[in-house]
Design goal:
By secondary structure, the chain is an alpha/beta fold. It folds into 2 domains: 103 residues, Enolase-like, N-terminal domain (Enolase-like, domain 1), CATH 3.30.390.10; 212 residues, Alpha-Beta Barrel (TIM Barrel), CATH 3.20.20.120. It contains 13 helices and 14 strands. Strands 5-6-7-8-9-10-11-12 form an 8-stranded parallel β-sheet. It starts with a strand and ends with a helix.
Length: 336
């Protein structure tokens, strides 16, 4: 096993404006950055963590440092899964191992994952929770993009928010995300409004632990599990309650498990969505690999930041394309 050099650091990236969801407002995004070097090649990983599980980058860096010796002794992705639990720390290390392997083999992570011809993806453009009028303006500011995702909250304005955005953007695919802000009764009351507005997806309506309250709910709109789907172990509990699983690398602990979730979800008859916990293009690029298999893609995190990496994902007309030069390819010099 090749010995590795582990480098860690924390970064803080400002949002271009306050970003609000149920129970949380971001003005900046803290991130853990890890680099793994074999002396010739470097693999990079970025972790945002899972804020509602107190999986903060400051905590994550301590988790990584606690297993530094084992990582630097040389470790496989399979061994990593036994060393760290699902979460942002394992995500950052796992992604760094993927990129390092791609560079060692003079190939790309896409190729390692068995994807021969990666395609640009339609990504939702997220509209943070605000007044109905402000959300309509946020949506219009994206231009005529094909897909929008609206953040809803626990307050009574959700119906007006949805109606306002639909009026402003009559042709867009629209999904809504409650981030656990509803309950069975408020979900049932909101469903006719969502149907009338042509909403195509309702994400995580109820809090984690209250998923059983959805039993028997007759919804013509597919329900997506996000906070209730942390890792591979959660998949069986979704059957009969949710029709879509939102895979996030920070939740499940990296690209390795994310790809396995996508595979098993398909076997179980679940539709697949890939999302993000905010972050730069270094977070989006590994998720872009998973996105090649997905029915719904939510990889617009950098659009909510004030700036992105110098070499970054390309967003155009509601679509995202991420070159291996951003992450996951040979060392940049090989592409020059």
């Amino acid at each position: 096993m090749t010995k590795l050099k582990l480098t860690t650091r924390l970064e803080e990236w400002a949002t271009h404006s306050p970003f609000r969801i149920t129970g949380k407002v971001w003005t900046s995004v803290p991130l853990l950055i890890v680099e793994l070097s074999d002396g010739e090649h470097v693999g990079r990983g970025e972790g945002a963590g899972v804020y509602y599980r107190d999986d903060t980058p400051a905590r994550m860096i301590h988790e990584v440092e606690a297993v530094r010796d084992a990582i630097e002794a040389g470790i496989t992705r399979a061994e990593l899964a036994t060393l760290l639990p699902p979460g942002g720390a394992r995500n950052a290390i796992d992604c760094a191992l993927w990129e390092l392997e791609a560079r060692q083999q003079d190939t790309t992570v896409m190729a390692l994952a068995g994807i021969k011809d990666p395609r640009p993806l339609v990504t939702v453009c997220t509209v943070g929770a605000d007044t109905p009028e402000a959300m309509a303006q946020q949506a219009l500011a994206y231009g005529p993009v094909p897909a929008l995702k609206l953040k809803l909250t626990e307050d009574p304005s959700n119906a007006d928010r949805v109606r306002a955005v639909r009026e402003a953007c009559p042709k867009a695919w629209i999904g809504v995300d409650a981030n656990q802000g509803l309950n069975r009764a408020t979900t049932e009351a909101l469903l006719p409004v969502l149907l009338g507005a042509g909403v195509a997806l309702l994400e995580q309506p109820v809090p984690v632990g209250f998923d059983a309250t959805l039993d028997g709910l007759k919804s013509r709109i597919p329900l997506a599990a996000d906070e209730s789907a942390q890792s591979l172990a959660d998949l069986p509990s979704l059957i009969g309650r949710y029709q879509v699983v939102n895979i996030k690398l920070d939740k499940c602990g990296g690209l390795t498990e994310a790809l396995e979730i996508a595979r098993q979800a398909s076997v179980l008859g679940l539709k697949i969505m890939v999302g993000n916990m905010l972050g730069t293009s270094w977070s989006m690029a590994p998720a872009y690999v998973v996105g090649q298999y997905c029915d719904v893609v939510d990889l617009d995190g950098p659009l909510l930041l004030g700036r992105d990496r110098d070499v970054a994902a390309e967003y155009r007309d509601g679509r995202v394309e991420i070159s291996p030069l951003v992450w996951g390819g040979n060392d940049a010099a090989a592409f020059a």
